[in-house]
TrEMBL record:
Annotated stretches, region: Disordered: 21-41
Domain NIF system FeS cluster assembly NifU N-terminal: 10-129
Family: Belongs to the NifU family.
Lineage top rank: taxon: Bacteria
InterPro entries: NIF_FeS_clus_asmbl_NifU_N
Protein name: SUF system NifU family Fe-S cluster assembly protein
Amino acid sequence: MALDNLRNLYQQVILEHYKKPRHRGRTEPVHRAHRGHNPSCGDTIELTVQLNDEQTAIEDVKFEGEGCAIAMSSADLMADAMRGKSIEDALAMVQRFQSMMKGEAEFPRELRKLNVMQGVAQFPVRIKCATLTWHTLRAALEHGTAPLGEEYVSNEEED
């Protein structure tokens, strides 16, 4: 596929998930929740997670918030990919996504939709937009629930 066609495909997928997000809202019940904020551009995400009965796997992830097309699309794609994943696998996927944004990795075929975000790596200032929700999910899974609106995770310290 020609590079221009690939860029157009990336842009199409990002715009599709931005305009028609599939995972906007709040999970019911909420087992984990966290808020993420990117001070450099103003993106804000409130992420809620529903776990299975054993609290070992993700049943659903939803988000609310405001932000650019890249941040909102990344949130929607991430929420879709996390359904059914163990907490351990989800945390590994967060690490893989961060590596992908540095040009060091990509996702396997069954998760190839996430690779659409690779195009963002060409614009270093936008990487923080793409990774915000992923940082927020990691905080929710590792640290439990922070009351929404009282505490937030930021990816501003990221390289």
